């Protein structure tokens, strides 16, 4: 792609535009600062050559972002904990939407209204496990035989003899605390959910200018609305802009370089921010800053932003 070169507006054209604009908005001011007592006031008496004391060629970078704030559902999950852990969790409860700018906590938090009891699946809600007594094989009693000799012949016979198992107190089994629920019978579940941020979608202009004007905010706002009426060079990324800015503008200074770097850093931040989406290309605009003085010695500045074909003018006159 060949380099695009943009022409800055002619200084006389900028001055003329300022004169016409000011004549419409503040004719009295012009008369006071440029008129001669006793003579009929005419715009012709205000000349650029006499008024403009110095001129700086600067640049502005503009792009627009769309900021969308809404709850982030990603990462929502259910947690299961033992009874004695529940009181250590900090729960949240939301009765209304949250303004994200006012929220300084995590974006995913435990929700109080999701806290539920869940029967322990390992012990079926009993709190313990039973194991059979090995001594009595679970019967609770020991069965044995007694040898008895009968009569003179000493006939040997066997008699049953049973006694309670002394290992299990005749119960036949042992209860062991369930390790899953620590004997509490229940486990507890709750959900980690997204803080209900109020959904807000807003378009935002971003302007960086190497001329330190008082109008930065005003220009930013105007450009957002008048972007089609101001000619600049469009770039897809900052690397391309950095490489071609000097050739495109046809002039350069260290403030412009610094401004491009700052705008680039800003752009990257917006790119990384999941709430923002960059909606436009990156515009590079020539900017002319004129330092002026009226016949009566009042200092003021005129700024133009845009190319020789399409530009807008600002002034603090
Ligand atoms: Zn036993
Ligand atoms: Zn259990």
Unreliable residue runs: none
Q: DSSP helix count?
A: 7
Computed over alpha carbons, the radius of gyration is: 43 Å
Q: How many angstroms separate the termini? A: 42 Å
Mean pLDDT: 92
Bound molecules: zinc ion
Reading the helices and strands in chain order gives HHHEEHEEEEEEEEHEHHEEEE
**Percentage of residues in DSSP E strands:** 35-45%
How many structural domains are formed by the residues? 3
What structural class results from the helix and strand content? alpha+beta
Helical content, roughly?
10-25%
Kindly state the number of beta strands: 15
Describe the main β-sheet briefly. Answer: 7 strands, antiparallel
- Apparent shape: rod-shaped
Structure description:
By secondary structure, this protein is an alpha+beta fold. The protein has three domains: 11-68 and 200-315, no CATH class; 77-123 and 179-194, no CATH class; 128-177, no CATH class. It has seven helices and 15 strands. Strand 13 and strand 14 (299-306) form a beta hairpin. Helix 1 crosses helix 2. The mean pLDDT is 92. The structure holds zinc ion (2 copies). The site of one zinc ion has 8 residues, from loops.
Q: Can you give keywords for this protein?
A:
317 residues; alpha+beta; 3 domains; seven-stranded antiparallel sheet; 7 helices; 23% helix; rod-shaped; binds zinc ion
Question: What's the structural blueprint in terms of helices and strands?
Answer:
Blueprint: H1 11-25, H2 27-34, H3 48-51, E1 52-69, E2 77-82, H4 83-86, E3 108-110, E4 116-119, E5 128-132, E6 141-150, E7 155-164, E8 173-177, E9 186-194, E10 200-209, H5 216-226, E11 233-235, H6 238-249, H7 254-272, E12 276-278, E13 282-293, E14 299-306, E15 311-315
Helix pairs in contact: 1-2
The protein binds zinc ion (2 copies).
One zinc ion binds at residues 133, 135-136, 140, 165, 167-168, 172.
